[in-house]
Design brief:
With 358 residues, this protein is an alpha/beta fold. It contains 15 helices and 13 strands. It has 2 domains: 116 residues, Aspartate Aminotransferase, domain 1 (Alpha-Beta Complex), CATH 3.90.1150.10; 217 residues, Type I PLP-dependent aspartate aminotransferase-like (Major domain) (Aspartate Aminotransferase, domain 2, 3-Layer(aba) Sandwich), CATH 3.40.640. The protein is globular, with a radius of gyration of 21 Å.
Length: 358
Amino acid sequence: MLKPRDAVRYLKEYHPPLGGRQGLRLDFNENTVGCSPRVLRRLQSLTGEELARYPEREPAERLIAAHLGIDPTEVILTNGTDEAIHLVCETFLEPEHEAIVAVPTFAMYEIYSGSTGARVVSVQADASFEFPTEAILSQINPQTRLIAMANPNNPTGALASADDLIRIANAAPDAALLVDEAYFEFAGETMMPRWREVPNLFVSRTFSKAYGLAGLRIGVLTGHIDQMKMIRRNSSPYSLNIAALVCLPEALGDQSFIRSYVEQALAGRVALERELHNRGTKYWPSRANFVLMYLGAANKPFISAMRERGILVRDRSNDPGCKDCVRITVGAAEHNARLMTTLPEVFAQTGLQEKVAK
């Protein structure tokens, strides 16, 4: 039998609960209506000749760079944000290094960091789930080579300030600071292109959320030109398939679709937070397209009752500090309306209001 590296043998596995996802999907922060109709039309027009060619990502990278207002040398398209995280870890981490990850957060920061053999230092946010700036700063040392976070964070929805992130970047000049802006469209705040001030900053984005292209796996990694040269050395020139590359211009070209969807999601977030506040249910204010709430012993009954009514929500109990918490995605107005109609029924069925409000 072949013997894998110890870093892989002892790596924590990530098992997303993807099976049996029938109904209204408010569990994975996806776009609840799907992608722009323009994307669908382009998919339907794909030819056999296009599928037979190796995909070229450079034209699409020039397009996304223009959309983001940066230079093409500062951007690389990736196979989802997952590949962007992987590339940063593989480019900058050695086994003797350390990676700092603020938790709870997206699991792949720890997994990809750990796969290099580097030591992962988890910094737990306090009960408020605000970004633990001071705690992160206290963990920086000469071995620190990566600091990774989602901003807004998943699953909490918390947003770190640009000033705090610049402080961290300056405090760890030998470490890559990866700011994952997967939910940028819902928060409207970005670190792009602050790498011109702090060259160790990287910013990633995804088309899986607001754009509804999770199935096509399109991500973007941006950073200082000198750092991106090293990232590009480590990447495959064909990691994006032709369907993703030909659909990207159509997705970018339909910004009215994106604006409409984001507006609906933000309205849904306000309505959901208001409902939870009025019922005395503990939740954490969010800057993303989801809300995390604490349900105590009613956690699993609530999830089951929602599924019985055809609505999927996400149990986050396994995340550090999130025991008995549920995350609910918001999206299109019709889906938000269905959620808000269903919630009172499920609250009544589970006796949730009385249990949590005490």
